[in-house]
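TEACHING EXERCISE
Course module: macromolecular assemblies
Task: Read the component lines below, then compare them to the predicted structure of the full complex.
Student: A.B.
Group: 4
Components provided:
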Amino acid sequence: QEQLQLSGPGLVRPSETLSLTCDISGDSVSSNSAAWNWIRLSPSRGLEWLGRTYYRSNWHNDYPLSMKSRIMIQADTSKNQFSLHLSSATPEDTAIYYCARARQLGIRFYFDFWGQGSLVTVSS
Amino acid sequence: QSALTQPRSVSGSPGQSVTISCTGTSSDVGGYDYVSWYQFHPGKAPKLIIYGVTERPSGVPDRFSGSKSGNTASLTISGLQDEDEADYYCCSYAGSYTEVFGTGTRVAVL
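Instructor-supplied answer key:
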């Protein structure tokens, strides 16, 4: 039974790093056919893909240009989990955060399994 | 990368059909046969409804169908049911190994 369990603080102070972890059950973070994604939903920015990590003989990361300067997504194979680190948080980063698995179709991906979202508020 | 454009809301009575459009550019929707659709119910994990423009994952009812013409993709729900009331988002590959979502559409069942 697949499960993605998100954990992390619900409140982050401005200028600090927003960090979340997604624990994977029923699959492997090192899978050669999956990618592990972070996505968020906010009233002001809508639904936004934040990036992914995946293993294909070595580790790869993809990020949208808007995030590249302050985001890092890492896999931890010993714990079968992946994490999000978003530096210099601002109130604009307040959102419901989701972790999601993507399957690969040819050279593209689709998000076939999502965890329950978790609200993160950036506020002093 | 700008979000794909969707209508804010669509509505229909049970049994009717509704179609949600998802308009992008030749750099995303129009450039690749790679659009997926997701259903968001409050308090539940989002669910994949359509991938690869027209493919339906196992377990998704066949009243959901996808299509694409030019820079616009569409999701049609035929025979609308009460449980279809939800938010729907499209997503497209946007080049340079990135993905872009739509602005989201609220489907109301009257």
